[in-house]
Amino acid sequence: MQNEQSVEQLNRLLRGELSAIETYEQALQRVKDTSATDTLRRLAEDHRSAADILRQQVALCGGIPDQDSGAWGIWARTVEGTASMLGDTVALKALKEGEEHGLKEYQDVASDETVPYSCRNLITSDLLTRQRQHIGVLDRVMTTLS
Questions:
Q1: pLDDT in tens, 26-58
Q2: By residue range, what is the domain housing residue 6?
Q3: Which CATH number fits the domain that encloses residue 39?
Q4: Three-class secondary structure assignment of the chain
Q5: Were both Cys, which of 7, 26, 58, 69 would link to 19 (CB 3.0–4.6 Å)?
Q6: pLDDT digits (tens, 9 = 90+) for 124-135
Q7: What is the total count of domains within the chain?
């Protein structure tokens, strides 16, 4: 039962990462500022790396990694698509809100003692740090565009 709960928690994080990849790719098609697109590419790659890490963790817990972002991804793509039509700054704000949501998700799983210690440690030592950095990076990019 504990492994099932861990797999579900990790797959929830994985779906969030897959959603982030999709929304960054969508933003990259619309954002015009070259320096911003370079930064967005790096952040999208960071989310790909996090997704790979989470796939490995799901498998280590005996689960099957989710393949798509599910309902959250549909909602996030809709928000990003609408925001992108309103300009670069609004699109970046939508990405930042997604990053903040992801940060909360990681914090929730990191504090869940049903998740194996090794997974929680990986989250707190690596994945949470990345999420926090993404928020700061997006803040800086928005500042340079305003």
A1: 888 888 888 899 999 999 999 999 999 999 999
A2: 2-145
A3: 1.20.1260.10
A4: CHHHHHHHHHHHHHHHHHHHHHHHHHHHHHCCCHHHHHHHHHHHHHHHHHHHHHHHHHHHCCCCCCCCCHHHHHHHHHHHHHHHHCCHHHHHHHHHHHHHHHHHHHHHHHCCCCCCHHHHHHHHHHHHHHHHHHHHHHHHHHHHHC
A5: 69
A6: 999 999 999 999
A7: 1
